[in-house]
Amino acid sequence: MVDRLHNHNTVVHGRIIFNLNYMRKLKEGDMLKKEGQSDKKILLIHGDLIFYNFIGALNSLVYCQTQKELEDGGWKLDEPDWEPEMNETFYVANSGVEDFFHESEWLNHDVDKIRYARGLCFKTKEEAIVKAKSMLNL
User: Residue 80: pLDDT band by 50, 70, 90 thresholds?
Assistant: First the structure.
């Protein structure tokens, strides 16, 4: 995949020609989803290369693919269709508790924003449970 690394800022990649118009322009922090897989979080984009890790993984490995390789593998950009409103009750996916979720109230605090950005906030308990179980590959 990566031919060689010159230094931490420069990556030389083999000749790859592909159409970047499959998904909207990706950015750092975006989440990619695929049915039955743990989500991928984009950490860095450098030229044609997308560096990511798996959310909920027990290791800190960083992977690298092109956008076309991700799309051809069935990965889709996770674009939320719901955002909590002030004082709204929502459910947080939590793979570390017996029920796989906990209930919270949106107060627009940093912790709320971080959970939301990580794709852990849901309108229903059922959605949160599905997400938590997917983090454990259940």
Answer: low
CB-based contact 34:75 (threshold 8 Å)? yes
CA–CA dist 83, 75 (Å, integer): 22
Which structural domain range is residue 123 located in? 89-135
pLDDT digits (tens, 9 = 90+) for 12-60: 333 333 333 334 467 777 888 888 888 888 888 888 888 988 887 777 7
Spatial CB neighbours of 92, under 8 Å, sequence gap ≥ 6: 101, 102, 103, 104, 115, 120, 121, 122, 128
Give yes or no for a contact between 32 and 70, defined as CB atoms under 8 angstroms apart. yes
Q: Are 25 and 49 in contact (CB under 8 A)?
A: no
pTM higher than 0.70? no
Burial of 66 (0-12, 13-18, 19+ CB in 10 A): middle
Does 71 lie in the same domain as 26? yes
10 and 37 together in one domain: yes
